[in-house]
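Figure 2 data, in text form.
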Amino acid sequence: MKPSGAFRVLRATAAAVGAVTAAAVLPAANAAPVTGSPAGTAATGNTANTTNTANTAAAQPGGPLLTAKFLVDGTSRIARLGSDLVLRQGTFDAGLYQGDGTTIRIEGDLSLPATPGYFLAFRFMPVTSRVALPQDGKATGTADISGGLLTPKIDVTVRVYLELSEVAEDGQPIAVGPGCRTRSPLVIPMRGQTALTPGAKSTLESTFDIPPFTGCGVGEDLDPLMTGLISGPGNTMKTTLTTVGIG
């Protein structure tokens, strides 16, 4: 299908922006993780005496002191688009492992279903897409359990790719192909107070960069278009973790 005149203008403008963005953001993607905002609030749960940590570790050598399963809800603000992406509910399975004193180690697996996205490119052109955030390796970090094993203050980094498919401009498909995604993972810090009692909700806020895109386009290179539209710094994520259970 022949691109519309509006799409040709969109592509030319976004490509120019994308060239600048790729030069600015790509080096940062290989640097240290960006700094996230501290958490907002967490529901209060029952505390546990941290002396139980040593007993649990002795009972399960090498295994987690505690495992926890969460439901994950989140809303991300994409700075370049000035639009929100409301994520479909997913899950986070975490293990808390023995560390140094009251600082313990966390590893976890994040699973998020693909989410439909809608935004106005340059605030006038409606664009829809399907957004997936596959995890790149385990989420890792630490937790301060000085206030109790069931109320850890966490500092965890999650790495996910941003993948696009089923992109359309004003209802007309844009052939981005099956491999359109960011060149490197988004590095999202999750920091703040959490509560592990079943039913408790913990809210965390993060700031992150979106790297340039690669693999976009069938028959033509659409990487500059997607990079110009979406990539850049100053994106935010508000995540709510609802504790399902611990073991």
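Caption note: The chain has one domain: 5-246.
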